[in-house]
Amino acid sequence: MHIIKLNNVSKSYLEDKKKLQVLKSINLTVEEGEFVAITGTSGCGKSTLLHLIGLLDSPDSGEINLAGESCNSISNMEIFRNRNIGFIFQFHYLLDDFTALENVMIPLLVQGYKKAEAVKLASEVIISLGIGQRMHHFPNQLSGGEEQRIAIARAIVTKPKILLADEPSGNLDEETTQNVISILRDLNKKGLTIIFVTHDLNLVKEDDSHYTIKEGKLIQA
Amino acid sequence: MKGVLALYWVTLKRLKSSSWGKNSLFMIIGIIIAVGTLTLSMILFESYEKTLVNAFKVAQPDILINHNYMLTEGNQEELESILDAYKSEIMAIEQKQRISVIINRGDSNKPAYIESFSEDNTNFNQLMYSFTKQKDFHLSDNEIILGEYLAKELNVQVGEEVNVIIPSSIRYSIFGLVKKAEKFLVRDIERTGLYEIDVYRAIVNKSRVELLVGDNDSGISTYLLLNDRSQDNSRLVAGELNRIFMNRLPQVQAFDLISKNSVIFSALSLQKVMIFLILCIIVIVASFNVISTVSTIIIEKINEIGILMTLGLKRKEIKFIYFTFSLILAHIGIVIGLILGYGSAYWLTSQDYFSLKGDIYFIDKILINPSALMFLTIYITTIFVISTTIFLSLRNINKLEIISIMRQ
Ligand SMILES: Nc1ncnc2c1ncn2[C@@H]1O[C@H](COP(=O)(O)OP(=O)(O)OP(=O)(O)O)[C@@H](O)[C@H]1O
Ligand SMILES: [Mg+2]
């Protein structure tokens, strides 16, 4: 089954009254369990594509299907997003006022989990990512790699079907990058569909479905 | 709402965190000043009103039945039988005579009036006069009790003598003016708190008053003290009495305390409303502060808002979080403002320099005694104004788009 299907998706922005066509008739099919790598020069539209797939933004034209549902027919976008999609961003975007554990608990609480349950599930995920000893620390007490791993934990704690990662290693040193990427690879092996945006070609493997965006078109690399 | 638990948790967390910022502090201080000023002024004014009403009550009967002259025996019986029907309402009753006099001591002459005092009417006296506190109080015929300010103006102390001159006794003769002056010993000095009474009233035993006036029976009226001393009740009873008097004793009229001083009281309540409205403007000004604080909070926390959105919170729910958060901050300001306003009202009135001019304000000292209703009114008004402001400021969140937040 296709977990993600994009049909002639186009997206443009208005900048200074000039239309900037970022994506032109994009077609993309992703199977469950695929690891998709998207590369391309800065400003080519990688993040834009990811935001469209993640339903954070809507296309000018074309259709997006996620987990068999057309995104036009989804009535409660927020809940759908919370259930099916996990996000990781380049800048870790943890909430500063909350401990690592609490950050990971929030999506669960939004789903209506009881606090005790949320604590249990969140700490399990944090421990599985090897940072159990840091879970009661606040973001500013964590290293960049630790923060990113907490962000991954928060993205996967609700067991989404799709994980969207927008340059998750962009801000990390080489060793930490390897660590974070290997976590993503592990998750993918366990069946999670991942779309991974990067400009570092070294992080892309042979087996990945590798695309690149050029002049608004998505090309198989 | 599914994530209600999460929302409360997030909100409470935000309160504990150290990231309140200077802005929140300014907002709270602004609210404290506005609410404090409003509370202080309203407490002072309300307490003034209450103290004044109370002073009126202490110093005057609930109902005054005016007949000016001694009633004929028949009419007196008629009045008694009318009042008899109100026996259960009336706590104490006395017919008193008042005469205008001039009181003299040394070089000072002061206009005053003498009010007759019946020693046997202990029930009445204990309610009306503080100098009767001691048991079996006895006022001799040559003794006089002066109001506080009257005594002050005459510069006389307890135990000293004054002369009382009755203007109607002044006669012209070939030797010039002949004044009949009677000597009295000042037995006590009475303070009711009501300036008008404390500056004019002198109290003398009834038998002596009768001797003083001879066959002059002007200035006689009947004083009633009711069991239920509320203003509403006095007005009610006075109204009923007047309806009866109209048919049976046309020359007699009953006045209750409030109607007698109705101009003062209606002016006071109008003023109270005006002061409240004017001071509400301060609260509105303080809420401009709220607008800027909430807007700054939104800008400062824009990342957080973006993350919460990607995590599945609706704008509505995010607004709820920040609304609750801001309202709790505002609440702190309101409560502190109320307490500070109350405290400073107490402190101010306990200072010596804060005393009113009795001849302008009727009373010279305010007893702080605010009502729960007033606190509630201030609280509800300020909460309403401030939460409306917060709500309006938070509408900016509607315009936020996740992607533009995340791109920053
Ligand atoms: N909300 C927006 N309004 C106007 N222009 C936008 C908006 N979002 C993106 N763009 C423009 O669209 C183009 C693609 O942006 P996008 O962020 O998708 O690029 P990217 O491939 O992710 O780049 P990078 O590698 O630097 O992250 C850029 O030229 C950008 O300026
Ligand atoms: Mg990007």
Keywords:
heterodimer; A: 221 residues; alpha/beta; Rossmann fold; 6-stranded mixed β-sheet; 4-stranded antiparallel β-sheet; 29% strand; globular; B: 408 residues; alpha+beta; 2 domains; two-stranded antiparallel ribbon; 16 helices; 19% strand; elongated; binds adenosine-5'-triphosphate; binds magnesium ion
**CATH A-level architecture of chain A:** 3-Layer(aba) Sandwich
What is the multimeric organization of the chains shown?
heterodimer
| CATH homologous superfamily assignment of chain A | P-loop containing nucleotide triphosphate hydrolases
Compute the CA-based radius of gyration of chain B: 32 Å
Computed Rg of chain A: 17 Å
**Strand neighbour order, sheet with most strands of chain A:** 6-7-8-3-9-10
Shape of chain B: elongated
- Say what the CATH topology of chain A is: Rossmann fold
**Low-confidence spans of chain B:** none
Instruction: Work out the count of structural domains of chain A.
Output: 1
Cα separation of the termini of chain A: 23 Å
Beta-strand fraction estimate of chain B? 15-25%
Task: Tell me what the structure shows.
The complex is a heterodimer of chains A (221) and B (408). Chain A is α/β, with parallel strands linked by helices and 221 residues long. Chain A has one domain: P-loop containing nucleotide triphosphate hydrolases (Rossmann fold, 3-Layer(aba) Sandwich), CATH 3.40.50. Chain A has helices at residues 46-53, 77-84, 100-111, 115-128, 144-156, 174-189, and strands at residues 2-15, 18-31, 35-39, 61-66, 69-70, 85-88, 162-166, 193-197, 209-214, 217-220. In chain A, strands 6-7-8-3-9-10 form a six-stranded mixed sheet, with helices on both faces. In chain A, helix 3 crosses helix 4 (115-128). Chain A is globular and about 45 Å long. The two termini of chain A are 23 Å apart. The mean pLDDT of chain A is 90. Chain B has helices at 4-16, 21-59, 73-84, 122-128, 148-154, 195-198, 206-213, 231-248, 257-260, 262-300, 302-310, 315-350, 358-361, 372-393, 396-399, 402-407; strands at residues 63-69, 90-105, 108-117, 143-147, 161-165, 171-173, 176-178, 181-190, 201-205, 218-226, 253-256. In chain B, a hairpin with a 2-residue loop joins strand 2 (90-105) and strand 3 (108-117). A six-stranded mixed beta barrel of chain B has the order 2-3-9-4-8-5. A two-stranded antiparallel sheet of chain B has the order 6-7. With 408 residues, chain B is α+β, with helices and mostly antiparallel strands. Chain B has two domains: 2-56 and 264-407, no CATH class; 60-260, no CATH class. The longest helix of chain B has 39 residues, at 21-59. The chains are: A alpha/beta (221), B alpha+beta (408). The structure holds adenosine-5'-triphosphate and magnesium ion. Adenosine-5'-triphosphate (ATP) sits between chains A (13, 15, 20, 22, 40, 42-48, 199) and B (403-404, 407).
